[in-house]
Amino acid sequence: QVQLVESGGGWVQAEGSLRLSCAASGLIFSNYAMGWFRQAPGKEREFVAAITSRGGITYYADSVKGRFTISRDNAKNTVYLQMKTLKPDDTAVYYCAADASIFGLTSTRPHYWGQGTQVTVSS
Asked: Mean pLDDT for the chain?
């Protein structure tokens, strides 16, 4: 079975940094585009970032451009989200996602999801 397991969430002060990791198994990792979504309390799930299967192209929500960086290590079957200059509005559960097409991450619902990791940013 396909599994996506997030880690690295926690509490951080505003202006601080965190790095999230997502370890994938049960799929040929290098064939999949990967991404991150988040859902804040009382709000809908929203797109954060995505990366193509080879890591050559990245996409970001306007709200995180210049602060967040998505990357991947296909040898480790892992995708990362480096978050800097965090804001209280970044507080959410962050979900890792995978799809055979980058468009499954940027324009439609991804095929596979992790269970999420909590990120809390205090002011």
From this structure: 96
